[in-house]
Design brief:
By secondary structure, the protein is α/β, with parallel strands linked by helices. The chain contains 13 helices and 14 strands. Helix 1 packs parallel to helix 2 and helix 5 crosses helix 6. The longest helix has 18 residues.
């Protein structure tokens, strides 16, 4: 462990995503690594600590697990957790919006998200993430920060507020890893994928129903695949969150960062950029690892176009809703449907919570 840090990894959250990260570290750690898990569910904390230490023993891995009980929605809780743990890397997976909203149906709120897109939930994911980012800036600025909660969009919100964010997990890394698995590719440098979270929806449908969807850009051995849907016709994601891949996708990066080793792979929201990219980690710094001939400006523009057409766009200190999402928010008289200043995020979250509560009681 690097001098000055009390623990290697802090995982905030006790849900399935956080559990997948922690328990996969337990099964794969190659060097000594300490993991602290923070959340408000005491029974779940106890189980993740017990299961993490059990899996480390089972697989003969040098990983140890501890827990802190904390409600990160409360004022001062994030500051206390960061000050107590001083982690080398903080992995934020706690949110006030369950990821199951992508597959749940039956009420007007889930219908709104299905029509307008997942960016409707961005303020929910940004609340705890913002608190943790601020606590790191104030109490442990050397701590690296990974946000797992809707990082394609939320990381931009966090960066625009002046906080550092290394990247997210999942999304583009779901596709890059399932594509690698489908082709039997073990060298991560061979495959490079450019993908926004909005590209994932097509892969939850049967191959014959993907016509008209926008495909990710996929480069294999330096050459772009012309028809991604045809080349990976047998690849299909679950309708539910693909936690078995998405939660696991950050584990090798987390381990490499703690060990101070280089790493090559894919992440969403690197350094607050919109969407997902191939990246490389060198000496603790994450840089884009784009295929030859593709500039950073082109890659960022390609990703940003998705939210510009429909979603939530960050411009300076302002956030602006667009497309179908803006239209459906206006239809339900959401007071911030035209956008909001980032310093009003708490107010936006409160008003969006009230809208969600109201719509959740209305059948779809």
């Amino acid at each position: 462990m690097t001098e000055g840090f009390k623990t290697d990894v802090l995982v905030s959250g006790t849900g399935p995503f956080a559990g997948r990260i922690a328990l996969d570290i337990a099964a794969t750690a190659e060097r000594p690594i300490s993991v602290a898990i923070a959340g408000r569910n005491r029974d779940r904390l106890d189980w993740l600590r017990t299961a993490g230490n059990a899996r480390a023993a089972m697989f003969g891995r040098p990983a140890t697990f501890s827990t802190l009980e904390a409600d990160l929605t409360e004022d001062g809780a994030a500051e206390r957790v960061i000050a107590q743990t001083r982690p080398r890397i903080a992995v934020q997976a706690a949110s006030v919006q369950t990821s199951m909203v992508i597959s749940d149906t039956g009420n007007a709120w889930t219908a709104l998200v299905a029509e307008g897109g997942l960016s409707a939930t961005a303020p929910f994911h940004a609340v705890i993430t913002g608190k943790v980012a601020r606590a790191i800036a104030e109490h442990s600025p050397e701590t690296a920060f990974i946000n797992c909660c809707f990082p394609d969009v939320v990381n931009g919100l966090i960066a625009a507020q002046g906080y550092n964010v290394l990247c997210g997990t999942g999304n583009v890394a779901i596709l890059s890893n399932v594509f690698s698995g489908a082709k039997g590719i073990s060298d991560p440098a061979r495959l490079r994928v450019l993908a926004h979270y909005q590209n994932l929806a097509a892969w939850r449908r049967p191959s014959g129903e993907r016509q008209g969807a926008v495909a990710p850009r996929v480069f294999l051995d330096g050459r772009e695949i012309a028809d991604v849907f045809e080349d990976f016709a047998d690849v299909k994601l679950t309708a539910e969150p693909a936690i078995e891949v998405s939660g696991a996708s950050g584990v090798t990066l987390i381990r490499a960062y703690v060990a101070g080793e280089p790493w090559v792979g894919h992440v969403p929201g690197p350094n607050g950029l919109p969407g997902g990219y191939p990246v490389r980690l060198e000496e603790g710094t994450l840089r884009l690892n784009l295929p030859d001939g593709l500039t950073q400006e082109e890659a960022v523009s390609w990703n940003a176009a998705f939210e510009a057409a429909n979603g939530l766009v960050v411009e300076g200190r302002e956030a602006r809703y667009t497309g179908a999402l803006k239209a459906v928010l206006k239809r339900w008289d959401f007071p911030h449907a035209d956008g909001f200043a980032l310093e009003r995020l708490d107010t936006v979250h409160r008003d969006l919570s009230a809208l969600r509560d109201r719509l959740s009681a209305i059948p779809a």
